[in-house]
Amino acid sequence: MFEFKEEEQIHHSLWVEKYRPSKLNDYVGNEHLKNKVAGYIESEDVPHLLFFGKAGTGKTTLAKLIVKSIDCDYMVINASDENNVETVRTKVKNFASSMGFKKYKIIILDEFDYMTPNAQAIFRILMETFSKHCRFILTCNYVEKIIDPIQSRCQTFAITPPSKKDVAKRLNEILQSEGVEFEMSDLAILVNSGYPDIRRVLNAAQRQVINKKLVIDKQSTIQANYAEEVVKVLQGSGDAKSKFVSVRQIIADSGVKDFTPLYRLLYDRVDEYANNKVGQTIQNIADGQYKDSMVVDKEINVMAWYRDWVTGDGNPSLDWSVAPTEAHAVIQLWQKGTGDMRVS
Q1: In which element (H, E) is residue 298 found?
Q2: With a threshold of 0.85, does the pTM exceed it?
Q3: Among 15, 104, 211, 235, which residue is least crowded by beta carbons within 10 Å?
């Protein structure tokens, strides 16, 4: 699929697209990288690039900004959808090998970490074969999923999210541009609930605008603070069962479905609550995060992680099989087919 610069004139009602930066000066964050990109744009000579970082931090935006700022033919492929050998052999190769009207062709492969290993092996050959007139910009969340030969052929840059202050400033500008009434305290709630995913922050803000007024719902407030509340419970005093009930209630009330930020916070703050079992706790976090990527109900998984962490030191006083607890109550309710498994 070809994309031409005239498409920039299409009106977008979605804020994430309407306010997607089209010029380098409008791009927020990654100041260390902007000077390099400015040099590519000025010379109109772009090397093979690999941008990696967390979701919603501006990788695709930067890639599209580059191709729209220079005189080139370009194509965008979402590798999370088209990620097999056939895509590389046909779509990528046909575009790269055909004669264009501009000096360079550029292919953006978004979410390249979804590309299969076999497809990546073939793709690395195309990078060398057509490098004289065709360059590639790859984006991904997990750079370790990309084979070394491809990484070595690219200039690789980590895309870091802008600070919360910068995100709040940008959100302020967007709300004012849309003529929306809001309280400054509401911006903090929105940013904290979605950071570092800027896309999520903008979508949450647009969703909560009613009649040109930003109305924050209670759920957003809970989601913004739930991870900190979990850490506070872990830091506090009390027996294992009461802490388990408290953490489970916080998780249930939050309504959160993606616990990746929680695992990260638990790791960052591990010294504050793990006491003399930091190593074991880090291992438990890693296990919980690994299982999180494979389970259907992530809420059950995160509570199973907590139980494993509490009982992992072999303390006989925490033998949950002797005295049934909330964890066993969950299993018992599930076995009986009870629909509601939350703490009342």
Answers
A1: helix 298-311
A2: no
A3: 211
